[in-house]
Amino acid sequence: MATNPGVLTNWPWKPLGNFKYVILAPWVVHSAYCLMCKGEKEADLSYLIIFPFLLTRFLHNQIWVSYSRYRTAKGNNRIVDKGIEFEQVDRESNWDDQIILNGLLFYLGHMIIPKASHWPIWRTDGAIITILLHVGPVEFLYYWLHRALHHHYLYSRYHSHHHSSIATEPITSVIHPFAEEVAYFLLFAIPILTMTFTGTASIVVAVVYLTYIDLMNNMGHCNFELVPNWVFSIFPPLKYLMYTPSYHSLHHTQFRTNYALFMPVYDYIYGTVDKSSDALYESSLKRQEESPDIVYLTHLTTTNSIYHLRLGFASLASKPFASKWYLMAIWPVTCWSVVFTWFYGRTFISERNALDKLKLQSWVIPRYAMHYLLGKQKEVVNNLIEEAILEADKKGAKVLSLGLLNQDEELNGNGKLYIQRHPKLKIKLVDGSSLAAAVVVNSIPEGTSQVLLRGKFTKVSYAIALALCQKGVQVAITKEDKYKQFEQSDRFGNNLVLPDNYDQKIWVVGEGFTEREQLKAKKGTLFIPFSQFPPKKVRKDCCFHATPAMVAPKSLENLHSCENWLPRRVMSAWRVAGVIHGLEGWNVHECGQTMFSMDKVWKASLEHGFRPLPISI
Fold first, then answer.
1. Is pLDDT at 569 greater than 90 in this prediction?
2. Cα–Cα dist 183/145, whole Å
3. Taking the domains of the chain in order of start, what are their residue ranges?
4. How far apart are CA 266 and CA 33, in angstroms?
5. Residue 156 burial (CB count, 10 A)
6. Higher-scoring residue by pLDDT: 617, 608
7. Can you give the residue ranges of the Fatty acid hydroxylase domain (predicted)?
């Protein structure tokens, strides 16, 4: 929102929310009806192509967003280091409004303007007119409109909304108040309307021109330099006819320079070129890929989880993972991604963060949770994890924490396999078990006298049971064999019990906790997971806490996507453990059966600003 919102700031269909697309439905249905009734030969191709073209624009923008986020995470050629936060993602979540507006105006134009129908495929004279009108009136008028929008009156009411984003993303280019976007549309419509009224319009020229606008807009806001030096060496005047991402980035950091649309020639004519434009361009081109200090190694979960990654759909990534019905519409893409990752996938970087001068990165193993459960994939998955560890070690990372099933005991012995294979590793492997256990223990409400321990028994559950017993809390274990196994140790004292009922109000549950077992709990029971994955919520009359996690400190930068099902700015304990390991400089592994002192790692996490995640009841 602008500093002091002016008239026509909000988009007219804002109250419709996600149902805003119904605005285009009448025309889409009518165009499909015309195609079926008249056939391909008699139907107006210029009318039929509007909706498919809008879909390609959605795809075009999404490709830019995904690629830009990938490149800025890697760091090579990145222009601005400032991070992006959830506030910016929310502000830019309506980037598709301008596509809906364009579609609406295209359909209305086709209805109202007689010459706006039955365009030919191509006309050379129309292409020449479009080029001349863009270089002349469009670029010239945009330059002065842009300067006017930076006058304090218009800036505070309209353009400040766009400039709220210092570190830009491709879709930042179309984040404007409604009135401002209408003004831009009228500018870009000059060549198309001129072609229409002069009878020189064609489908290819209109599509190419609008695609050019999208391409240049996205490129100018992508926050990494991608225009190579040789382009300007071959044709030096191009410097005045095409801007670069670093050129426009300066406009977002300096505000009073580099006003040009796509052609800097008018900045040169009127003396508004930023003096550091060339230097920033050169330095951005030379910038190398960033080497992380701490790596969090995770993997894909469900087949739809690829869309919830930071590199996927920004609006989904910024919210806790939840199934969306509309993702069924792109099931062919989903199936293709599963097959592709199965045969050709390589570990990739998904996210970068910064905390206390340490560079953090999240890497993703291109395998879904189902792959980890297939015996035939065990060796393949282990090889991918091993390659990632060696790559991180080569890049000089200090710590790598194993997330989700990458530290599965049956798969690799909680990471011990890699230490055995590579005893001279400089990087320290962390499975985060001690902090996960500490988070669960400190989530138990004060005054609790007894808890029930259910699910698969792991070193985390053992540590939790031991810590609670030593605090004087009774731990009930329903499995007699495990009870006898634990009872053999005198460390548990008399606080380990074999219950004859399920009256406990606090259940600490892990992997393998079944829906059937949930039904045995009393109304109002609180389930606290110690597993990597959350249990399925069958009981609506009970409370479910999140999987072991902590709230990130405000000083953690560039955190604008949710980690799987966790809330915003909340990180899994296994991920936090790696960060704490690096911040404290602990030069030892924590994997296999090795565990840190729970008190030590818990206190360290609190000292560095991490906070417990409150229980929602």
1. yes
2. 9
3. 14-234, 294-434+565-612, 436-550
4. 47
5. 15
6. 608
7. 133-272
> Which tokens belong to 57?
């624009």
Cβ neighbours, 10 Å, residue 294 = 27
Q: Among all chains, which residue has been given the structure tokens 């400032």?
A: 82
Residue with tokens 């000089």, as numbered in its chain: 396
Q: Which residues pair with 401 in a beta bridge?
A: 296, 430
Which pLDDT score, from 0 to 100, does residue 146 have? Answer: 98
Q: What's the pLDDT band for 40 if we cut at 50, 70, 90?
A: low
Tokens of 500: 């004859």
361 has a pLDDT exceeding 90: yes
Pairwise pLDDT comparison (90 vs 3), residue with the higher score: 90
Quick one: average pLDDT of 473-493?
A: 78
Six token digits for residue 180: 């401002």
Q: Give residue-wise pLDDT tens across range 179-237.
A: 999 999 999 999 999 999 999 999 999 999 999 999 999 999 999 999 999 999 999 99
Q: Would you say 595 and 344 are in contact if contact means Cβ atoms under 8 Å apart?
A: no
Angstrom distance (rounded) from CA 297 to CA 348? 10
436-550: CATH homologous superfamily? NAD(P)-binding Rossmann-like Domain (3.40.50.720)
Residue 107 CA to residue 116 CA, distance in Å, equals: 10
pLDDT tens column, 585-599: 999 999 988 888 999
* Identity of the amino acid at 134: H
Residue 143 has a CB neighbour count (10 Å cut-off) of 21
Residues contacting 429, CB < 8 A, separation 6+: 389, 399, 400, 401, 402, 415, 418, 419, 589, 590, 591
Q: At what angle do helices 50-74 and 25-42 cross, to 10 degrees?
A: 120
pLDDT over 70 percentage in the chain: 98
Let me know: does 48 contact 131? Beta carbons within 8 Å: no
CA distance 492 to 466: 6
What is the DSSP track for 346-362? --EEEEEEEETTEEEEE
In this structure, what token pair is assigned to residue 329? 């519409």
Residue 487 — very low, low, confident or very high, per pLDDT cuts 50/70/90?
A: low
d(CA 434, CA 416): 15
Residue 411 near residue 382, CB atoms below 8 Å = yes
Write down the residue that tokens 């000292």 correspond to.
Answer: 607
Question: Where residue 344 falls among pLDDT bands split at 50, 70, 90?
Answer: confident
pLDDT for residue 607 is more than 70: yes
Question: Pairing between strand 474-477 and 450-454?
Answer: parallel
Q: Nearest CA to 564 among 351, 291, 248?
A: 351
Indicate the average pLDDT of the chain.
93
Q: Are strands 506-509 and 526-529 parallel, antiparallel or unpaired?
A: parallel
DSSP secondary structure code for residue 201 in this structure? -
Instruction: Look at the block and give the residue holding tokens 């002065």.
Output: 144
Instruction: Summarize pLDDT for 413-443 with one digit per residue, the tens.
Output: 999 999 999 999 999 999 999 999 999 999 9
Q: Is residue 570 exposed (0-12), middle (13-18) or buried (19+ Cβ within 10 Å)? A: buried
* Helix %, strand %, coil % of the chain (to 5): 55, 10, 35
SS3 453: strand
- Counted residue by residue, the chain has a size of 617
Measured distance CA(602)–CA(609) in Å, rounded: 11
* Residue closest to 362 by CA, chosen among 317, 412, 327: 317
> How deeply is 361 buried, as exposed, middle or buried, from its count of CB atoms within 10 A (0-12, 13-18, 19+)?
buried
Check residue 546 and report its DSSP letter: P
